[in-house]
Amino acid sequence: MVNWNEHLNKKISCACGRDHECDIAHVEIGQDVIEKLAGYVGEKQYKSICIVADKNTIKVAGEKVYKALKNAKADYSEFIFQDDELVPNELNIGRIFTHIPYDCDFIIAVGSGVINDLIRFVSQKLKCPYVIVATAPSMDGYASAVSPLIVDDMKVTYEKLGFPWAVIGDVDILKNAPEHMITAGTGDVFGKYVCLVEWKLAHIVNDEYYCPSIVDIMYNAVNKTAEAADNGIAQRDKDAIISVMEGLVWAGTGISYCGNSRPASGCEHQIAHFWEMMFLQQGHHELLHGTLVGIATVAALHIYKEALAILEKETDFVKKSFDKAAWESKIKEVYGPAANGVLKLENEVGKNCDDKSAQRMKSVLAHKAEIIDLIKTLPDVDVMINRMKKIHEPYLPQHVGISHELLRNALIYAKELRNRYGVLQLLFDCGKLEVVADKVCAQLEELN
């Protein structure tokens, strides 16, 4: 188990030239750790505590939270969402602001992804610390400073919101979470195999900041999760579940150390976010983010395999000039009510313009051998799929109702969600993105 005191709430000088820091006071992952809430409350002598949860999460963790507060002789109020499917949008942020006491000085969030994202945003607005009592090892946002929210039908990632004061993961609760939530968290961790390669790719091509020490930390976390998937997760072994939860917390810590989400998010997250947005537009809220990240990771491994073949076989790349008008028309068609945000981003940064594409491709060709070697470090896709099968984790788009059109659109247009360089932009720059998307769609649809 990780000794989190060695890594949190202090400056760590790094060989990359930066000081790393994660301002989380406590991370507790293990047995009977919720009882430590009593000490946390007494330590700061909070006067107006509010518990925020949903009707499901309060059932599984509420008794232990109430007991800890009783031991601390602390008064509290609570707001419990009664929604069957809670959505992290502006409506529910408003509901929290409506019900939370005006003098609230400490929030205890009980839940997983949605509750955590909502409370992080509210906490920042109120300048009020919060602790997250995790009810499932389902996503990697527990220890991060960002909240992906749905605002005006667009998936918007609010960054630099601040960290929870503490993250608490009671293994007896975590291991009894629904299977699909455990596999979602595992899929979210597996995505780090792709995003860490993407980060190095951006460093090679665009001279983006890169820290080998953070990468080593993240690989250690994801490899431990892979070992847990091979032996332990399906059996709900406590040590295996702890490995998953620690991997998820390391992702947020890595984001803090880096200053952005590079250590935890690459094209696999862009693709997953695209699918989430499209499903939300259709009124579907049931698919978990980590589940989609796991599926997108398998898709990304296929994409990188095709990119490797292109780089190994071809020596020159000529693509058509960027037709912005045609592109804008397609973006409006594909993104629907969320198109304005995508169009605004391109107008601001011009990432697809011919000059920038040519400049990046020049760098790709100059470092082609290094990029080829980098891609070869990715795990074998068949090994990854077999690992996901062992824990009953969805790994193909068709497993969760993603159509051919939705798959193809994600591979081609998900990159437009952020100004972030990765393999999808590389393939766009060399005029191969649509060809590769069609190949990968066919490959994924042939699998079972």
In a nutshell, what does this entry contain?
This protein is α/β, with parallel strands linked by helices and 448 residues long. The chain has helices at 37-44, 57-71, 90-99, 113-126, 171-174, 179-190, 192-206, 212-230, 238-258, 267-281, 289-313, 324-335, 339-349, 354-366, 368-375, 381-390, 404-413, 423-429, 433-446; strands at residues 12-13, 19-20, 26-30, 49-54, 76-81, 106-111, 130-134, 147-151, 154-158, 166-170.
Provide an overview of this structure.
- By secondary structure, the chain is an alpha/beta fold.
- Helices cover 54% and strands 10% of the residues.
- It contains 19 helices and ten strands.
- The strands form three sheets. It has a six-stranded parallel β-sheet with strand order 3-10-7-6-4-5, with helices on both faces.
- Strand 1 and strand 2 form a beta hairpin.
- The longest helix is centred in the C-terminal third of the chain and has 25 residues.
- The chain is globular and about 70 Å long.
- The protein starts with 11 loop residues before the first strand and ends with a helix.
- The model has no long low-confidence stretch (mean pLDDT 94).
